[in-house]
Backbone:
């Protein structure tokens, strides 16, 4: 997208959702949260992609956490994120 909000184009094609983008301070990369599936209960991870749509990198792989809300550090060397632990799954009841 340009400065006026025009010329929008999709950068990702994970298969699931891609949300909460944050552009790096140098304007060359976008951090976002997303997943590869639309299945109920799937968690999101943090990804980074170039603004040209190339060099997609998965930064987190946490099946028991929902990682989202990435935010670049001012110098672009780190990404802060929010991780929410999934509720423990029941193994059944004892009798």
Residues:
């Amino acid at each position: 997208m340009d400065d006026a909000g025009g010329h929008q184009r999709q950068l990702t094609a994970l298969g699931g959702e891609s949300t909460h983008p944050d552009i790096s301070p140098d304007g060359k990369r976008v951090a976002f949260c997303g997943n590869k599936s639309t299945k109920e209960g799937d968690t999101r991870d943090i990804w980074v992609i170039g603004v040209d749509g190339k060099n997609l990198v998965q930064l987190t792989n946490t099946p028991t956490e929902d990682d989202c809300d990435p935010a670049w550090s001012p110098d672009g060397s780190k990404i802060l994120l929010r991780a929410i632990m999934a509720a423990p799954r029941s193994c059944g009841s004892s009798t």
Residues 35 and 42 are 7 Å apart (CA to CA). Confidence is low (pLDDT under 50) at residues 89-95. The first strand starts at residue 18 and ends at 23.
